[in-house]
Amino acid sequence: MSDQDPRTVPILKHYYRDPNEEHSVELSGLSFHAEDGWPLRATLHQPKQLLQPKAPAVLLLGEPGLRLRNIFGVLAEPLAKTGFVVLSLDMRGSAGSYGKKDFEKFTPADVKGLQLDVRAAIGALSARGNVDSKRIAVLAAGITSEHAVLEAAENPNVRALILMTAQDMSEQALDLVRSRDKVPVLAIVGRDQPKHLQRIWAEPYFRSIHPNSRLVFGVDQGPTMIVRRGSLVETIIGWLDENLASLAVESTVTFTSEGGWRLAGTLYMPAKQTGHKAPGVVFAHGLNHSEQSWGTMPSEVAKGGIAALAFDWRGTRKSINEGRPEVGVDMSFDDLQSIYRDVQAAMNFLASQDGVDVNRLSLVSATAVCNHAVRAAIGDDRVKSIVALSFFMPAPDVREYLRTNDVPIFVVASTEDINADGSSLADSSRVAYQASMSKRSQFLLYDDAGRGNGMPFAKPELKGMIRRWLEETLAT
């Protein structure tokens, strides 16, 4: 880095929509109150032109009593130019949020109120019409790291944490960093500081089990690190671009299946706009599972550029209809045999979404529902590939479809997967694979991967393998 003014840190050009546009960011002050009535002030940076339908948002928390929120300007403005909505907050007892008591005179009980400030600021961001309330990151410095982590543990919309020289973090907060396995952590440490402090500040990184968590070094400590020489601004923007801006845009949806069944699910749309319509994939859960059983797989698929729909089929969880039978209680054999109709309805709903290529669809299914997924594809030329985890013995019409259609199928099974009657799902999965006429079909056999929806959890690498398979088979 050159010896230029550190307040004008150069930003990687590819992050900008137009790096020569001087007025691409709107700046305004906000006032709101925490739950306990404490008045708070903040500065809002937002792009005049959004790069996505709704923007991801970043909350910047300074150290109370030490620095004004405008120290974050060198980071907030380029973040906004990148496409984020950014809110810099003065914590209670400090600067614009002074209130009635100086932070230096706070009691331990008063300090706990900092979490209410974080909650109120996240609420203020979420309420804005141009913000995607399900994609929020929090950058905290010093003692505010504790309160950012505590609030993130209660708010699933906080999807990333940046902790600058985190200090005085309780064991409870550090344990929460580990438990929030879907929230990556960027821990920032001062390379010029004493090693015993470096070890303390780095602890959130070592507690995190998210694969995208990182540990980086800057100069100094707290918010001051932002204006020191180095590439922290570029590093933070790049990390947020990967771990927040690229996350799928999620929405809760409902649609109707054959016979008037109301079905509910979650739609995951790619956040990055490529100018081309995205292929789509429907996730149909196994017989004794629900939409939740897929974990993060649908969102990871969407992050790679494929629209995804995971749903609860008839009579399960969110798709339990008043006055209609429930799975495991009073659902008839005929209703269960019509699950393929729900898969068809899900495909039709996904194909109807703006930005989805109606002619490039795929299906991912598990256990007994693998038969229903293939049956849903019969006569539907939109289906270009199928993934099946622990295929039950394929029915005659399913085997005929696989035998006569050049639609590749990726079958995954495990040798220890034995039913109570002694039948092997590894054997039945092999039958399904061998029935396929497509030379692109694949069969993956584990020894210890469990069954169906549980397999991506037992074998985490399977998520990446399925994602790449979908991308290859749905490529234009």
Short recap of the structure:
The protein has 476 residues and is α/β, with parallel strands linked by helices.
Fold and architecture overview:
There is one protein chain. This protein has 476 residues and is an alpha/beta fold. It folds into two domains: 6-245, 3-Layer(aba) Sandwich (Rossmann fold); 249-473, Alpha/Beta hydrolase fold, catalytic domain (Rossmann fold). The protein is built from 15 helices and 16 strands. It has an eight-stranded mixed sheet, with helices on both faces. An eight-stranded mixed sheet has the order 9-10-12-11-13-14-15-16, with helices on both faces. α3 crosses α4. Mean pLDDT is 92; it is low at 1-20.
Topology:
Elements: E1 25-33, E2 39-47, E3 55-61, H1 73-82, E4 85-89, H2 108-112, H3 114-126, E5 131-141, H4 144-154, E6 158-164, H5 171-179, E7 185-190, H6 195-207, E8 214-218, H7 232-245, E9 249-256, E10 262-269, E11 278-284, H8 297-303, E12 307-312, H9 333-336, H10 339-351, E13 356-366, H11 369-377, E14 383-389, H12 396-404, E15 409-414, H13 425-435, E16 442-446, H14 455-458, H15 461-473
Parallel strand pairs: 3-4, 3-5, 5-6, 6-7, 7-8, 11-12, 11-13, 13-14, 14-15, 15-16
Antiparallel strand pairs: 1-2, 2-4, 9-10, 10-12
Helix pairs in contact: 3-4, 4-5, 10-11, 11-12
CATH architectural label of the largest domain? 3-Layer(aba) Sandwich
Number of domains: 2
Principal-axis shape: elongated
CATH topology call of the largest domain:
Rossmann fold
* Strand arrangement across the biggest beta sheet: 1-2-4-3-5-6-7-8
CATH class of the largest domain: Alpha Beta
Largest sheet: 8 strands, mixed
Rg value: 25 Å
Estimate the helix proportion, in percent. 25-40%
